[in-house]
Sequence to fold (593 residues):
Amino acid sequence: MAARNRPLRWLAVLSIAALAGITGAARAAAAAGSPGRIVILMVWDGLRPDLVNAHDTPNLTALENAGVRFARHHSVFPTLTLVNAAAMATAGVPSSDGVFGDAMYLAPALDMARATAIPSVGYLLHDPLNLENTRYLLALHDARAFADGVLTLAAAGQTVANSGGYVAVLGKQGPTGMFDPEFASTDAAGDGLFVSDDIAAPPAVAAELGSRPPVTMMHPESIAARDAWFARIVTERALPAAKAASDAGRPSLIVYWQHNPDLAQHLAGLGTQVALDAVAADDRNLGAIRKAITDLGIAGRTDLIVVSDHGFATVKAEVPLARLLKAGVLKGDPDANGMVVAHNGGADLVYLPARLEPPERTALMRKIVNYAIMQPWCGPIFSDDRVSRPTHNRNYRGFIAGTFSERAFGLGGSSRSPDLIVSFREFPDESNQGLTGPSNRAIVIGPNVEETVANHSEALVRPIEGVIYSDAPHYTTGMGMHGAFGARELHNVGAAIGPDFRRGYVDQLPTSNSDVAPTIEQILGLKRTSGASGRTLAEALAGERLPAAKARPVTVSARAIDGDRSVTIAIHLTRYDGRDYPDGVSIERVVHH
Ligand SMILES: [Zn+2]
Fold:
């Protein structure tokens, strides 16, 4: 749909390149006729750092040892795929890039009379919509919804394409759509590539690629074949095209997003053979990409960044929050009619009816919070007062007792901000032994009693620590989930190797998925995305000075009291260079006598 803009964009590219769009390195490279830099961003969806070792992931371990290992890498909360794809692509956080979940309720941010007229997606906008779907993202890229796409900040793919660079985005549908909302076939030179599970562009490429290996949820091992198919597009098409672009002095960005181990961990469970095999398959794809870089003779101009979008945990029990609220504390409450809960596994986004005046809204929020926060399944709750100004960003406490401020955590103040974000509780040190495996009891928390259902996870091979309560129908006890504010989900994998990175370096400073785009843009010599929250990871770059600033731990807490019971929720952060990197939560529940 952006094809109509191509002549215009091409003109814009020429003028931007001549003026401000390309800075330092890229301009120098083009002027000197030297090769353009190539950056590959390879994402292993849902890989936990503790699953990386010489036995299971020899290629990733070798990369970490020879290049940079980001020892304290962080996912952006909510620890969900699209939230972190948006953060990686734009250097933003939800309040600035507009992406709060995989399932988002967009109605509050839309003119619904116009938006509901959009074919194929409009009628779905009355409810939360799962945006892990390129066709929905394309359909919402419409003047009646979001004229510039669902993202509210420029994505790295666009920045590179606008500078005249080569862009290829390949892999899992949804997150790939965050990197180039115009889908890279429309880049200035017309040689870009976008291939996800659900679309391929340009159309001529789709025909050449043939059909994708089938993926069936009943056979999680089938996902590895799909990821390997995408890896072959990286090695056989994207890398040779990037080399050609590089030879012409153009920068290149290749994004390759693997489904695994996320899908295998969701469906079979952490520590099952299927999940362990999935990690091994990802590692073989990494090996194939590194071999292709060597074989093409481009190792001296290619940087390879490997990250995961979020960590993972095992489902302890299902918590159907909307059902519990409607059957309990909100039963018969007319103000609650029209409340929408977008469930996202480890975190739920709660939207109250737009018609409510501030006092009624606050009263309803208080009712929900006072109930939820006293439950054993509840983690930190974030609230948006819709009033405070950004200058109050360091005021961590929310305006409802017991909650944290959405604004202080990059979540508040957007027209898409939920009134409440409820994170479910994670127990980072509890093992999944006794949860994962078909013979274990699976639990759904009901309004009055715990219901027992069939456990759909597979046999446990290697116990893994970290369990959570979660709101995701069909993901039973023992299966895998993420999304919560907890140490096992907030800590993820980061590593890099190539001419621009230090060698044999362990980065002990806190780093985040929001820092990926500024680092890529620095390497490619492009201008920093405006509105960015992230920083350039200068300490990991060759030839840059090590910073003098120190990181320091900070704990912020919120407390709620109900009769003789109290709960204190403490959030642990690392503060560095003016930024907060979230590390985990501790919760203390006390009954006073
Ligand atoms: Zn993910």
